[in-house]
Amino acid sequence: MLSPSALASLLREAGFDEVRFLKRGRGSAKRLRASGERAIALGRHAWVVEPLALLIDLAASLSVYAAEELVVVATRGVR
After folding, report:
1. d(CA 21, CA 71)
2. CA proximity to 74, closest of 8, 1, 4, 3
3. Full domain range(s) for residue 50
4. CB 62: neighbour CB atoms within 10 A?
5. Predicted local distance difference test score (pLDDT) of residue 34
C-alpha cells in the first residue's frame, strides 16, 4: 500500500500535472458496525465499535490522510 506522498509522486512521474486528495468523509461506521454485529454473534464484546467508528469518521472528515482509503483526482494536460 502506498502512502499519499508516494502515490502523488508516482502519478507525477506518470505525467499527471495536478494531483489532489479529497476528503473521504463518513464511511467506516457502516463497516465497523457490521464487524461489531459479527463479534456480538460470536459472543464477543463490541462496546468499542461505535466510539471507534465515530473517531475514524471524524478524522476522515477533517483530513485527507486519516481515512481508511484515499480518494485522488489526477489530471494532465493534452499531449
Report:
1. 6
2. 8
3. 4-75
4. 12
5. 81
